[in-house]
Amino acid sequence: MATTRTKAAAYHGVENVKFAPKTSAGYAEDDAILPVKYAKNLNPSSLLEAVEQYADNRLLFRVPNDKGYDVELGTTGPDGELEKAAGYAMEGASGLISVGQVAYARGALYYEFIERDETGQASKVKCWMFNVEVGKGTGTYTTDESSVTFGTYTYPMRVYGDTLMDSTGTAAYVDSKGLGRTAFLYTSRPGDTGYDTFGDSVPVPKLLASA
């Protein structure tokens, strides 16, 4: 049976961001998942391109080339634990040392936001992004004048996604024409199976079993 989802009238906010580094067995769990405190904004931008096929002096079709998302994660300041996990910060004898990044660390990124229906009633949406690459952050520092201007910090990220699995979660999904899919973003709303614990660990992106 098909699931019909009601469109929200508005959405806002971002909170409870965390990062689960990739491991040899999948993604980090429990205490190894890093909380990213004081998120200011999170902006996913689609990396969808198209390759066009022409013949007989006309456009025949376009082939979508979906490369996932570029993401900017804004926080109130640098996050030392995230930067160490990303491989470009190390503990020094007298503090934290920023070092050259020799490889991009990957993991899963979690966040929550609020949706509201047309009556103003709120519900929380929980999200995981898969196979996320973390880049070096960029800060802004401004002198204090007659009023204080708070600094901001932005981490660039890229979402590569994981293989979409079938309803068993043990085999890759393949459609009737032999094509698979890549799962980039998994969202859970109140009423979805497993909603209460959705943010506790990185879920396997698998399809709903057919009735």
List keywords for this structure.
globular, two-stranded antiparallel sheet, Pnp Oxidase, Chain A, 211 residues, mainly beta, 14 strands, single chain
How do the helices and strands line up, and which of them pair or pack?
Blueprint: E1 10-23, E2 26-27, E3 34-35, E4 39-55, E5 58-75, H1 80-86, E6 89-92, E7 95-98, E8 106-116, E9 122-134, E10 138-140, E11 152-159, E12 162-163, E13 182-183, E14 185-188
Antiparallel strand pairs: 1-2, 1-3, 1-8, 4-5, 5-11, 6-7, 8-9, 9-11, 9-14, 10-11, 12-13
* Rg (CA only): 20 Å
Distance between the termini: 6 Å
Instruction: Note the beta-strand portion.
Output: over 45%
- Low-confidence spans: none
CATH top-level class: Mainly Beta
Structural class: mainly beta
Helix content: under 10%
Mean pLDDT: 94
Count of helical stretches: 1
- The count of strands amounts to 14
Return the CATH topology: Pnp Oxidase, Chain A
Largest β sheet strand count, sense and barrel closure: 10 strands, antiparallel
How many structural domains can be distinguished in the coordinates? 1
What does this structure look like?
By secondary structure, this protein is mainly beta. It has one domain (10-196): Pnp Oxidase, Chain A (Roll). It contains 1 helix and 14 strands. Strands 1, 2, 3, 4, 5, 8, 9, 10, 11 and 14 form a 10-stranded antiparallel sheet that branches. A two-stranded antiparallel ribbon has the order 6-7. Strands 12-13 form a two-stranded antiparallel ribbon. The mean pLDDT is 94.
